[in-house]
Structures are given as C-alpha cells and as structure tokens.
Amino acid sequence: MENFTGICKVSAGITIKCRTKLLYLRSAALWPYWFETLKFFNTMGYLTKDKLVIVGAAGMIGSNMVQTALMLKLTPNICLYDVFSAEGVAEEMRQSGFDDANILSTTDPAVAFKDAKYIISSGGAPRKEGMTREDLLAGNAKAAQELGDNIKKYCPKVKFVVVIFNPADVTGLVTLVHSGLKPNQVATLAALDSTRLKSALAKHFGVSATEVKKAYTYGGHGEKMAVFASPTTIAGVKLEDIIENGKKVNGKGLNAKQWAELQQDVIQGGAKIIELRRRSSFQSPAYLAVKMIEGAMGGHVFNYPSGVYVDSKKYNHVMMAMPSFIDKNGVNLRPLKGTKAEIASLEASYEHLQNLRDQVIGLGQLPKVEDWKTVNKNL
Amino acid sequence: MENFTGICKVSAGITIKCRTKLLYLRSAALWPYWFETLKFFNTMGYLTKDKLVIVGAAGMIGSNMVQTALMLKLTPNICLYDVFSAEGVAEEMRQSGFDDANILSTTDPAVAFKDAKYIISSGGAPRKEGMTREDLLAGNAKAAQELGDNIKKYCPKVKFVVVIFNPADVTGLVTLVHSGLKPNQVATLAALDSTRLKSALAKHFGVSATEVKKAYTYGGHGEKMAVFASPTTIAGVKLEDIIENGKKVNGKGLNAKQWAELQQDVIQGGAKIIELRRRSSFQSPAYLAVKMIEGAMGGHVFNYPSGVYVDSKKYNHVMMAMPSFIDKNGVNLRPLKGTKAEIASLEASYEHLQNLRDQVIGLGQLPKVEDWKTVNKNL
User: Fold this and answer.
1) ipTM for the complex?
2) How far apart are the first and last CA of chain B?
C-alpha cells in the first residue's frame, strides 16, 4: 500500500491490488471501522464539540494533556485553566497548526468552567523526590474542594470529570462530594499502576506487553495498591503457574521472591521515574487521563481500572481503583474477583483510604460521612 | 452517530440510519479514506515498520517527539538516543500502554543508528532566555557533525532526516554534508515561523487560523526570516489590500505600522514563549518535526515550508526555508514567487546564512565549500 498516499492512482499493478482489497470492504468485522470513518465526517474529525477544560494546564502534565487531546481530536473547544497563566501553552498549540481548534487560556474559573462538559484536572502541587503521595494531602485536598465548588457553581451539567492530582483517590473523592455530581461522573487516574505492572512483567519475560493479559491493580494508587494477578497470563501461560509451579515463558521463570520484588518495583514506579528523569512522570499520566476522557466522550472504551466511588456493603464512602471501564455512560464497575490473599490486600488498601478520607474530614475539607448527602444528594 | 460505539447495534431506528450512511460508501470523494483504512490493516495501524530514531530523546522536545510519534502511529520501532539516558522517557511510554511498540533507549550511537530509516534530531543544547539562536552555533555545529558522521557510519541507507536543533539551517547543513545523504533526504524545522505568522494574523483579525491562507516565511529561521505575505489572504481578502488599501476583515484593518509590529512579534515568537512559559518552546517544534517525518513516511503530506538545501544559481550551498513540501520522495521544492521587497528580504536572509555557514567552516566543522563533494558526492 506504499503507493497510496491518499488518492488511488490508476495503474495495472495497483488496480489488481485495489480489487483484492475491495473484498475486504464486505467483511462484517470491518463495520466498526466504517462507522468510525462516518462519524469522522459528522464532526469534522472531532469526537465531540463539547467544551473540554484542562485544569492545571500550565504544568507539565496539563500542557501535555492539551496537546494529547488535540492530537487525539477529542474536541475543537478546549479551555486551558490554571492559577498561573497557561497562555504560553495555548500559544504553542496555536503554533503547532491545530488551526480548526478554539484554544482559550484563562486564569478565571468563571470563564474556564462555564458550560464545561468535560474536565480533567491535574491542578495540584506536583510530587517532589522523596515525597509520598500522602505528603501532598493537605494542599491538594483544598484544590479538590475548589474544583468541586467550581463545578457546582459554573457547570453543574458537566458530563464527566477526571481527577489526577495526588493522592488521586482522595482528591477525586473530595471533588465528587463537593461537585454534586453522580458517582459515575467522576473517576481518578489509577491505570498507571496496572500499566506499570504489565510493563514490568513484559520486561521480565522479554515479551511484548501485548502478551501480558489481565494484570491489574486495585485499591489505592501508590504504596497501598492491591495487585490482582490471579487471572494474569503471560503469552498464554497463567502467571500463577509460573510462580507456583515453576513454569517458564521465553525460557524465564519467576519465583515468589522475584515476584515480590517485581511488585515492589511497580509500587516504586513513580519514584523510579523521578530518579531516571529528575522530574515526576508527566507523559504517562497525561496520556492515560486523556484516554479516560476519550472513553467518556464515546471514543475508544477505556479498559484499564479507574478510581471510582464505591458504595457497596463491604467498601463504601471512598474512591478507589476497581475493575471498571469508561464509556459514554461514564465509569462503570465490573465484578470484583480475586483470591483470598488479593481480597485481603484490597481490604488493607481500603482501610488506608478510609484513614486518608478521615484525615481530610479532620482538615475540614470534607463534611462528616453522614452529612455527605446534604452536600451531594447523589451520594 | 452517537449510538455507534464501535459495533452496529441492530434496532429498527438504527438500521435506517445504517442505510442512509451506506450511500456514503459509494461516494468517490471518500475513496482516499477507504484506502487509509485499508492501509491501517496492512501495518497494524502503523504507517511503516521502519526504525525511527529520536536523537536527544531525554530532553523536553525529544521526549515529546517520542510520544507524538507513537500517538500518530508512525512506526512501532522507535529508538530513543541521547548522551544522557532516555530510559525514563522509554519507561513512561511503556507505562502509557503503547503495548505493541518496540521502545528502545540507548546511549550508544552504534545501537541507536544501526539500520535506522528515519531520524529526527533535537540533540543540541537548548536555547536559554536572552540567547540568540546563533549563540548556540559552536556547540551545536559539533553535535550536527557527529550526527552526520553517525549516519554515514551506521545507517547510510536512512530514508529521511529532520534536524531541529538551533540554528537549524546550519546544523541541518552540517548534518547533510557529513552524512553523505542526498539533499532531498535532509530537512530542517522552519514551519514554526509560518505557523506563528498565521496564528498572529488570526489573532489580530479575530478569525480562525483556517481562514488565514498562504502566510509563509522563508530564508533563515529566526531574526533573519523573510516574510512572504503577498499571496496571503484573510477570510478571502488579500492581506495586501488590507494593509495598502485599508480593507477590513471582521471590522479590523491592519496598517503598515501594525503589520511591521506583527512581523516583529512573529520574529520574537520564540522569545515570547520563553517569557510566558519560563522555558523555550518544546511542544510546537516537537509536533511539527514529527509531522515532517510523517510526510516522509508517506502519511499526510507536510505542506509548511521546510529548511532545504538550495543549489540554484542565485541561492546555493546553504540550507534555508523555501517553498516546499515533504512526501515519501523526501523534501521537494516548490517555485519561489515574491514581490521585489520579499525577494530582497530573502537575499538578506541568504547572506546571513552564508555568513553563519562560513563561521562554521572557520570553526572547522565544515570543509571549504569547494571540498564538499569530496565529503558528500551527492552535493
């Protein structure tokens, strides 16, 4: 197909190629792609025209999210909000040639949030080397409260909000409570632990990450995450069989000690990036957060776990990573399955998140749990 | 089309929609899109499988280029090269879930350049506040010489190289001479001046950048650029008519003084970004450079001017922005047309570039012009 640069050039050899390929057109399996193409024409290539607000747009994560959203053609209506001016970022985007996009930068929340339909917020302080996510708690809980208040005040009809500033499970929860939104309308970035786990397993076994299936972590984002590896397979081989029964993939095994070390590496994944880059990770959280919003906009369904508000008998009144997906209905829970050890690990994570939540209640940035309904009737 | 999230759901209402859309399939105008879709299947969604090397991948521009290239699905084989380790960037990309990509990071040029088919180099020192591009000359000319040598040594069959470190016209020239490549195989980033001009005009008139046509700059990238605005139109109105005859667009005119100021703003565009962001621009050069390589890979043709090697009677033995486009044949010149004033401005720019070239010859990083053929028989 090297010869097709857009328009079918008629020549003997290529005509034959065309005919062969035409048979392809009839395949039912390809219908989704035709519809994607048709959808493209309906929106001039954008997934939606709804207003997307990037909060913290002047920062490293925020500015990357702006570019990512434009490159993925999510919407032409994008607003860059930051307490520091993000005009430099807006100018860079205009100068990149995203000509049909309407790129606005503002430091005024009234302008930023007015009529917003989608929001991604990285609008907290960044994590510095040596800091745990929890160290950031006090300042970022306040930023989350402001975000929730701004949503309630300026865009109560927003469709979906992604919160990614740390500790994300807590800032997402604070945002949800104060925003008045429904639980399926707010999610936090949790996928990074799962992609780190997948990537570490792929590296260990020397296989493509596409060969690592169902490697997910739930619970807290960070040191207290719960690894759910009982359904994980590497190149079709169950990870459990590798760890417990000495099976090998690509000539490589993984014993219990190595597995514990690998999990520890995943837990320290963020710190490792800081060590390697001399700055905290920004490209991976930015990309994944925008992919979450893409799911909510009706694009590719986002299939990694997200931090979601849980309100079951066992886990309730916290936000934490759970088996879930994001589509145009928002964030949707999947059934939770795990071994006894995995569930125990999730329970420990849940307890940790309850403690963090209670700290924030103590700080006055969340009402007492029994009063949440008075602030947000959807809880 | 909101109801189609990938698979056609069979229901009465939607079936009717399907039929309406099917008529679309027959439109000849849509053929290019079907071919794009077919091409997608042939390469698993990537434009090519050829190895792409990002030089300077640990830096702000380099790391953005890696992400941009992966997001644009240029190739799954991407190598991150830097004298500082770019492993942190590679890890971020793996952790972004680009699972089918083969992302390698190395500090060894032999590993990096071996069998490379496409290269983008941002591998120079960045421009600091207050520095002109020329201040960077000495150090970056040396980096360009090394790049050329590495190409000649490790990947003489490379298809296309984009050089973007400043002063790009000179570093591109040094790379070309030492690499042994043909002139149509090396281009430098020059589009940013044109996109800045377009963006500034759009802002002044309060129109979409899509309404600003044929606003290009040629010659040097930076203070000595030559603005070619005689063919420029704003919302269909000739810019000349606005400046000289007082015509208005959107109720706004542009007199000669304002026009001179606007051009000055464009010239200072890079410095303005440094002022706004407290760092030099990185997103726009990264994105545009990757779009140049996309053109060379046979994707969307790159239609902004590039810095190209010129060897005409009038302009020769320098690299400078010229009317050009990049497609799978490399960088191709378009005819140059301009008013007397525009041509005079280009000549001044050309003289400036000759001086820079001669400085580099003086530094010993380029042979004397008459000896170029002994280093590169394609010149």
Assistant:
1) 0.88
2) 54
Please state whether beta strands B118-121 and B52-55 pair in parallel, antiparallel, or not at all (unpaired). parallel
Q: Are strands B77-81 and B102-106 parallel, antiparallel or unpaired?
A: parallel
Q: Which chain B residues touch A210 with a CB distance below 8 Å?
A: 99-100
CA dihedral A170, A176, A177, A179 (to 10 degrees): 140
Question: b/e map of A241-253 (b: 16 or more CB within 10 Å)?
Answer: ebbeeeeebeeee
pLDDT digits (tens, 9 = 90+) for A160-204: 999 999 889 999 999 999 999 999 999 999 999 999 999 999 999
For B113, the enclosing helix (H) or strand (E) is helix B109-113
- A261 near B CB under 8 A: no
- Compute the distance between CA of residue A30 and CA of residue A65 in angstroms, rounded to an integer: 30
> What residues contact B248, with CB distance under 8 A and at least 6 apart?
B242
Token code pair at residue A149:
């208040």
**Partner B contacted by A94 (CB < 8 A):** yes
Quickly state the pLDDT bin for A15 (edges 50, 70, 90): very low
* DSSP calls for B264-283: HHHHTHHHHHHHHHSS---H
CA distance A252 to A241: 13
For residue B35, pLDDT beyond 50: yes
Against a cut of 0.90, is the pTM above it? Answer: no
CB B175 within 8 A of CB B161: yes
pLDDT for res A34: 62
One-letter amino acid identity for A151?
I
Distances (CA, A) of A375 to A331, A365, B155: 21, 12, 64
Confidence tier at B114 by pLDDT (50, 70, 90) = very high
Count of residues making up chain A: 379
Range in B135-144, B203-212, B259-268, B342-351 with the lowest mean pLDDT: B135-144
Query: How far away is chain B from the Cα of A379, in angstroms, using its nearest Cα?
Result: 28
